[in-house]
Every structure is written in structure tokens, then in C-alpha cells.
Amino acid sequence: MSKKFRDLVPGIVLLTAMIFAMMTFPMALANAQAVSLQEQLAAQYKLAKMGSDSSGWSIVEEGTLLSIQKGGIKGSPYKTSFTRSVTFQDGTVHAAADPASGKAGDIKNKLCGVFKKCPTTPDAVNDESTTKLFAKGDKVYATKIDVGVDKDTVTMAIVACDTCNKTDPPTYNKANIVFVFPKGTLAAASAGQVEDTIGTLLSISTDDAKQADSGQQQGGDQQGGDQGGQQQGGQQQPAAQEQPPAEPASIDKGMTTDQVQAAMGKPDKIVNLGTKTIYYYKDMKVIFMGGKVSDVQ
């Protein structure tokens, strides 16, 4: 080996290592982003679990209750071997199972994607007798979430909450929803941005909070009725002096979690995402970064 060639070897090795690093770093970065986003979405949306016995399929573990905000999502009974898919892009529900195909309606060859579920017969997916069109306001659970940073998609599998929707007999209709983001944006998107996009189609339901409020109100009414009966039976109590109206609760940027709870009370739900924490109240959410209020939505 000539001296000139030996002198070139270290440079060739270094150049090869640099090229390899340039090729693998974006892939590693995308994988890391997918894992991080997957974990944060899993913290935001607790997944429901399905189980079956001799009576059929049922929800054995409830998850985060979601409310459908737009029509156009077609589902099929959970017992069927295939799952219908739609995409959600630019605020609109599309019938195409694959955003890259641009074809709507015919999903016969598009069901072996993220969740690897295919129809047992070629015409099964076109059988309208097994189709359920979810209505706006229907309640559902997420059963699986898959983040595809390289494809700029987040795919969510949903199943109907038949007890919430008063569906009898229960069928637990299911569907896959592919949330499509502008090309190249998902890798840099925050969990909050992704959640906002999902929320325009599947918002977190406040029914549980409303039921709790209703129960407390009924208890208060009953207590008030008892007190009224006692007053009628005995000496009439003097009317209470009119109290000045209380100052409205306010939230300012930079407030701590304790200060917010002192002003607004205990939140209906708390989602902890590490340095980011979200307090959900009946008609708003308070976002904390590093323990202090950064935004209110």
C-alpha cells in the first residue's frame, strides 16, 4: 500500500461515517419524535379495552370518553373481522382509507394498513347492512393510537360506547380514523397541537362532569327542601341579609396550580405530560408549563 493511499484512509473513513450519520440521524429523530408523541397522546387519551365471552364482545375497561363533533364516520359491528376507515384532513371527514390513494369509497384493498385487519370476503366491506353512520354527539372510546411521523398521520381506532348512546342491542361499532397533517409538519408538532386537531373531530366528553354537577345540585335541592320543611314546622327564620356579589374568578398567566385551584376549584380532570400539565374544567382547559399557567383555552 502506497504512503499516499495510507494518508487518504483516515479521511475516507471519516467521510463514510459522516454520510452514514447524515442518513440515519433523521430516521432516529423521527422515531424518537413518534415515541414521545405516542406516549403523550396515550397520557391524554386513556385506551378502552374490549373482551369477549359467550354473550359476545363488550367493553371490559373504559377509557377517556370522546364525543364525535362531525358526521361522515362509518363504522361496523365489533364482531366483524374488518374495520372501516376514514381520513380527517383540513377539518373534513373523507371516505378514503388511504390518504395517498386519493380514492373515496372503495376501501376493499386498503384495510390491511396500520392495524393489519382484512375482510374475510372480498365484498364484506361493501355490505351496507353492517354499516353504522356515527352521528354528531355519539360517544366513543379510543382503543388504539398509532403515530406515523414519516407519513404525517395519527391513526386512532374507536369503538362506540353503546351504554352512553343507548344502543340496544349493543353492537360496539368500530372504525379507524386517520388524522392527516400537512406534509413534513408532524415531526415538529407538539402534543397540544395534535390534540387540538383531534379535538375538532373527537372532543373529550364532559358528560361525567355534568353528571357529577347534577348529583351535587340534586343533593343541595333536597337539603334545601328539608330545611324549608323544618322552618315551616317551627318558628319562621328571619330572611338572610343580602350578600354582595362575589368577585368573578380569574386566571392570570404565571399562576401556580395551587393558585388556580384556589380560584377555580378542583379540576374535572388532570393530564400530566412531564413539564406540561393540563387542568380540564367544564368549559375550558388551563395549560401549565413548569408548574405555572402558560395558556388558557
Element-by-element helix/strand order: HEEEEEEEEEHEHEHHEEEE
Number of domains: 2
Distance linking N and C termini: 70 Å
- Low confidence ranges: 97-111, 119-126, 209-216
Which structural class do you get from the secondary structure elements? alpha+beta
Strand content: 25-35%
Q: Report the C-alpha radius of gyration, rounded.
A: 27 Å
Q: Kindly state the mean pLDDT as a whole number?
A: 76
Q: Shape from CA axes?
A: flat
Strand order of the largest sheet: 6-5-10-9-8-3-11
Number of helices: 5
Could you outline the blueprint of secondary structure elements for this entry?
Elements: H1 3-44, E1 49-53, E2 56-61, E3 66-68, E4 74-75, E5 85-89, E6 92-94, E7 132-133, E8 139-148, E9 153-160, H2 162-165, E10 174-180, H3 191-199, E11 202-204, H4 207-233, H5 257-264, E12 269-273, E13 276-281, E14 284-289, E15 292-296
Parallel strand pairs: 5-10
Antiparallel strand pairs: 1-2, 3-8, 3-11, 4-7, 5-6, 8-9, 9-10, 12-13, 13-14, 14-15
Give a verbal description of the structure.
By secondary structure, this protein is of the alpha+beta class. It has two domains: 42-204, no CATH class; 251-297. It has five helices and 15 strands. It has helices spanning 3-44, 162-165, 191-199, 207-233, 257-264, and strands spanning 49-53, 56-61, 66-68, 74-75, 85-89, 92-94, 132-133, 139-148, 153-160, 174-180, 202-204, 269-273, 276-281, 284-289, 292-296. A seven-stranded mixed beta sheet has the order 6-5-10-9-8-3-11. A hairpin with a 2-residue loop joins β14 and β15. The longest helix has 42 residues, at 3-44. It is flat, with a radius of gyration of 27 Å. The model is unreliable at 97-111, 119-126 and 209-216 (pLDDT under 50).
